[in-house]
Amino acid sequence: MKALMIGKPKDKANKKSFTEILKVMWIRDKWLYVLLIPGVLYFLTFRYAPMYGVIIAFKNYVPFLGIQDSQWVGLEHFTSFFGSPDFLRLLGNTLWISFLSIAIAFPAPIFLAVLLNEVRFSIYKKLVQTCIYIPHFLSWTIVVGLTHLLFSINGGVIVEMVEALFGTRINFLADPEWFRPMIILQGVWKGTGWGTIIFLAALANVSPEQYEAAIVDGAGRFRRIWHITLPAIRGTVVIMLILTMGSVLNTGFDQIFLMTNSLNRTVADVFDTYVYNVGITRGSYSYSTAVGLFKSVVGIILILTTDFIAKRVDKESGLF
Amino acid sequence: MSDLHKLHNTKPGRVFDVINLIFLGLAAIITLLPFVYVVAGSFATESELARRAFFIIPETFTLEAYRYIFTSEAFIRSIIVTVGVTAVGTLVQLFFTFTMAYPLAKRKLHGRKLLINMVVFAMLFSGGMIPTFLVVQGLGLIDSYWALVLPGAINPFNLIIIKNFFQNFSVELEESAKIDGASEIGIFWRIVLPLSKPIIATFALFYAVGIWNDFMSPLLYLNDSSKWTLQLLLRQVTISSDPNALGSLDPDYIPPAEGMKLAIIVIATLPIMAVYPFLQKHFAKGLLIGSVKG
Amino acid sequence: MRSLKKRGVWLVAILFSLFFIVGCGNDDDDTASNDGGGSDGEEKEFFEEIKIMAPTFETTAPPADNDWELAVEELTGKKINMNWVPNVSYEDRMNVTLASTDIPHIMVIQGKTPGFLNSAEAGAFWELSDYLDDYEHLSQYNEDILRNSSVNGEVYGIYRHRDIMRSTAIIRKDWLDNLGLDVPETIDDLYDVLQAFTYNDPNETGADDTFGLIIPTWYGTLDTLSIWFGAPNGWGIENGKLVPAFTTDAYAEALEWTKDLVDQGLVNPDFTTLSPDDWNSVMFNGKGGVIIDTYSRAMQINNLFVDETGSTDPDEYFVEITGTLLSPDGEEYGQPTDGYSGFLAISKTSVQTEEELHEILAFLDTLCSTDGINILSHGIEGVSYELDEDGYLVPIESEEAAALKSYEMGQISMYGEGMHQMRGDSALAQKRYRLMEENEEKAVFNEAAPLVSEVYTTRGTQLDDIIEDARIQYIAGQIDQDGWNDAIDLWYNSGGQELIDELNELYQNMN
User: Fold this and answer.
1) Contact (CB<8Å) B128/A138
2) Measured distance CA(C327)–CA(C321) in Å, rounded
3) B54 touches chain A (CB under 8 A)
4) C73 in reach of chain A (CB within 8 A)
5) Do A50 and B38 count as a contact with CB atoms less than 8 A apart?
6) Is A157 on the interface with C (CB under 8 A)?
7) Cβ atoms within 10 Å of A20's Cβ, excluding its own
8) How many B-C residue pairs are in contact by the CB < 8 A criterion?
9) Per-domain boundaries in chain C
10) Is the CATH code 1.10.3720.10 the one for domain B70-289?
11) How large is the greatest C-alpha to C-alpha distance in chain A, in angstroms?
């Protein structure tokens, strides 16, 4: 027992014999393993058992025939996807939207959470918090409907305002140049308030004494934000960033589909809408599974890379 | 506190405060307005909805849509079902997630890395709709409310964030409890969880919203239409907005009235939105959680 | 020992999961009726109840054993078990059901989607061409529609009949009256109306704040126009060969005509982005005066005006409908639907033998009888409707009738003779039924409707998008004639030529 306690902070598993490790597992951590049981069972049953389903990426899956009896086609779906003349354009469009959204939509909730944290009238703060998280509950159909209302070339308020101010009439909804800014703008409007919740939860960990002490030390507002608030949420920010990287190739479907029209399709087509369009005509679970597999592989590589970089910068952060 | 207040009230501080309050106020307004319109529209007549693009107070006030909804027995039943499934389901999902997150936060645990890898992998790779359906069917969960709760019992994304929160937990507290002879489960239950209220509140909200908004699970797993949840109804009325469906719609199909759509949106979102203000008080109660790394 | 226990847990868990996989995979074949052979002749009943999967468009599914369902059960002498599925994701649910071990006897199929086609090809449903003629009522099908609903001639389901004519121009009546214009009868008349609606201040505000035609991002309007001009409906026959509509002269003429409208400002300026959701309100708001779409939309818009004015006079109406407009060459070319909306398919998994099939078909035959079609299409006489002295159907407006209507048994109504006709309760409705009847004679059917092509199944959306986008860009002035021709070349090179070849081959084989 005692020896184990001493070795605890930095277990070097490989230096111990197998039986010793088992001993540790059983004696010291028995109850921790007991706690793990429901979770592990869950993953095995609902996440891993169905995973044999990914082999349909290599088959022509017909639900009626079942996975077993569907025809094996090998890499056909992959070659038709990568070989498609549109592949590079789709990849480009997808990455553009993802990176703009990581650059703008990802930091927005952090910024807003920090500002909210500075508000001292708690009723006002709660009121604002409650309002800004509402858009999360409105469907993309409604958000896109509102966008049409505001940005329509035929009497949209914002189009009129822009014309009054700058003298040009911009067709925000049809001009391919404006497609990406509009998508990001909608994303920020819809997701920022909701996104603050996790950071506000992290900020709840900061004890008021730290701020008080800093004030007594004469630290100004921005120094307090810099030295207390931001470090308090750094771990959460890093982990959120790492996890977000996993879905870089997922731009979501509804929003982009609804915002696409005949004039902006060249910049609007992304993997998710493409798979939908192809999938709906092919009825192909197989094809979308193949594309999904590709996206997952890219996602896992990006997650591990980001995690690796994060650990290089700060040993304590990261996934593990 | 009054001393502190004075210290706050430096001139640049005040300017910042004013700008900040105005900015946040504006943000609140532009996020609130559309929903106010949805609510107002649900009380308006069809012709007003078609004539006016945006309004906050309807000219003619009508309860037609709500009267229809609340006289329908099936609708009331689905509200009760949804609230029940969300409440129980949230507890179950919190249980699964927190019991797994806590041991995974212990760096000393053998096999931890393997398990975390397993979680991350499952976050990205999934078997897809039909194999998952077959598992649910194999477990005999078809037409059971458990089918709405168990397949999503742990969101790997949430699990990892919670695990990270726990990793920052003050070690001293736990050590002192251990010396008092408490087991790991005892520490988890009596010390860690009570001090993790902001995190529990946050993820309770995430899970509750997830179950509430889920429409694929009830669609696939519930044959018995008396068990349908609100989201199915919501999707049914918003279908006419799907531009893709327009071309193929049955010529005899008459889309639901606009006011009805809005009323259903209000009923299907208002209860879950109301949860947040109630949870907010817990966001200030995690102060003891202590040692934040800086 | 202890390690064994630990491993034991894992082992059990893995076995547990494997069990599910295997358990689910193997169950596929042992469903359906267990009395296999059963050749005791006609009187033997195979199915105590018939399970039917159907979509529901209502927000709440019909309750089991409601009055309407009971009426159908009484008529057919069969217990029915309806499995209602929300229309929103019917396709997904259909596929999951086909993958599962519990397949209903009859499934409503909403259209020839690839999911359905794959399963049909794999033998999920009965091919019915050889059976229908054996039944008194099922044999009353319309040849053309049955052909349209088939898959390259194979009949995998019994079609659900729908109105054949539904396209019309919808015009604000008050604007016509203000300007003293007649209801247009030809496309040239329509052009004059659009001109006047844009420039002659039809709403009498004194301001230039109106336009003629309203086009949203759903471009059915352009298809309808091209057919009215004389282009094929999707696919037509030229020199004995199938050709796509957009290569024909009439199509080009229609495109030119529409471009001219846009150039002159007779169309809403946001026609590249206007959501179809806002279509009705643009007309109702008095911004635009003409929509080309279906009669149902005309009814919707008229109802908005009725709602606004509180009009109770059934002879008063607010939008004019025209039916098919005559082409500039003086001929009439109408745009029909395919005449059906989905079909009822019979599962081979749960209905295994021919004897069993006969029992199901006998049941469906009853549903196609005069009584059957009337119950399914109109509800229960005395509750949902009455018949007037001329035998026309008059709907009853009562809460009971409204409740019954939401039970949606109409989802399984197919076709049949002796269906009660609606006289229409208003002047507008009567005009609608008259126009529908008059226009039907000159309908231009899609020659390729029954054909299901491999190329189209894999590349259809991209091919359609090429033409769809190019024609909008052309009309909007973003590309010129050369750009349009380039798009057509791109279409040919992206699989279009293969599509033409394949369809022609299928067409030859079928005829």
Assistant:
1) no
2) 17
3) yes
4) no
5) no
6) no
7) 14
8) 130
9) 49-162+339-421, 166-335+424-442, 453-511
10) yes
11) 79
Find residues 101-130 of chain B whose CB sits inside 8 Å of chain A: 102-104, 106, 108-113, 115-116, 118-130
Structural tokens at position A254: 């509804």
pLDDT at C12: 46
CATH of domain C49-162+339-421: 3.40.190.10
Say what the alpha-carbon torsion angle A225, A231, A233, A237 is, to the nearest 10 degrees.
110
ipTM given for this complex: 0.87
CB-based contacts of A143, cutoff 8 Å, min separation 6: A135, A186, A189, A190, A255, B34
**Which residues have a Cβ under 8 Å from the Cβ of A188 and sit 6 or more positions away?**
A104, A105, A108
Nearest partner of B43 among B25, B15, B69, B23, judged by Cα: B69
Structure-block tokens of residue C378: 């109109």
Q: Cα angle at B118 between B113 and B124, to 5 degrees?
A: 130
- Residue type at C335 in one-letter notation: Q
Mutating which of A41, A47, A60, A62 best tests the C interface, going by the most C Cβ atoms within 10 A? A62
Q: Burial, B11: exposed, middle or buried (Cβ in 10 Å; 0-12, 13-18, 19+)?
A: exposed
Task: Look over chain A and give the mean of its residue pLDDT values, rounded to a whole number.
Answer: 87
Q: In angstroms, rounded to a whole number, what is the distance separating the alpha carbons of residues C396 and C388?
A: 12
Q: How many angstroms away from the CA of C87 is the closest CA of chain B?
A: 7
Residue in C closest to B78 by C-alpha? C60
Q: Does B115 touch chain C (CB under 8 A)?
A: no
Taking the C-alpha atoms of A33, A35, A38 and A43 in order, what is their torsion angle to the nearest 10 degrees? Answer: -60
Nearest in space to C471 (alpha carbons), one of C215, C166, C192: C215
Fold match between C49-162+339-421 and C166-335+424-442? Answer: yes
Cβ(C319)–Cβ(C292) below 8 Å = no
User: How far is residue C4's CA from residue C6's CA, in Å, rounded to a whole number?
Assistant: 5
CB proximity B61 to A under 8 Å = no
Q: Is B289 helix (H, G, I), strand (E, B) or coil?
A: helix
Among candidate residues A174, A160, A318, A173, the one with its CA nearest the CA of residue A236: A318
Percent of chain B with pLDDT over 90: 40
Report the alpha-carbon distance of residue B64 to residue C234 in Å, rounded: 43
| Residues A38, A42: Cα–Cα separation, whole Å | 6
Percent of chain C at pLDDT > 90 equals: 62
Whether B239 contacts chain C with CB within 8 A = yes
On chain B, the residues whose CB falls within 8 A of the CB of C110 are: 248
Q: Does the CB of A132 have a partner CB in chain B at under 8 Å?
A: yes
Q: Which CATH number fits domain C166-335+424-442: 3.40.50.2300, 3.40.190.10, 3.40.50.2000, 3.90.1170.50?
A: 3.40.190.10
Nearest chain B Cα distance for residue C307, angstroms: 6
Length of chain A: 320
A67 in C contact zone (CB under 8 Å): yes
Q: How far is CA C77 from the centre of its chain?
A: 31
B52-93 per-position pLDDT tens digit: 878 889 998 999 888 888 887 888 888 999 999 999 999 999
Decide: B123 and A11 in contact? Cβ < 8 Å.
no
CB proximity list for C5: less than 8 A, separation 6 or greater: none
Reported confidence tier of residue A60, pLDDT bands at 50, 70, 90 = confident
DSSP-based helix, strand, coil % in chain A, nearest 5: 75, 0, 25
How large is the average pLDDT for residues A131-159? 89
Among A101-115, A158-172, C378-392, which is the least confidently predicted range?
A: C378-392
**Is A166 exposed, middle or buried (CB count within 10 Å of its CB: 0-12, 13-18, 19+)?**
exposed
Domains, chain A, in order of start with CATH, read 1-55 (no CATH), 83-313 (1.10.3720.10)
- Give the pLDDT score at C5: 45
The span from the CA of C451 to the CA of C35, in Å, is 38
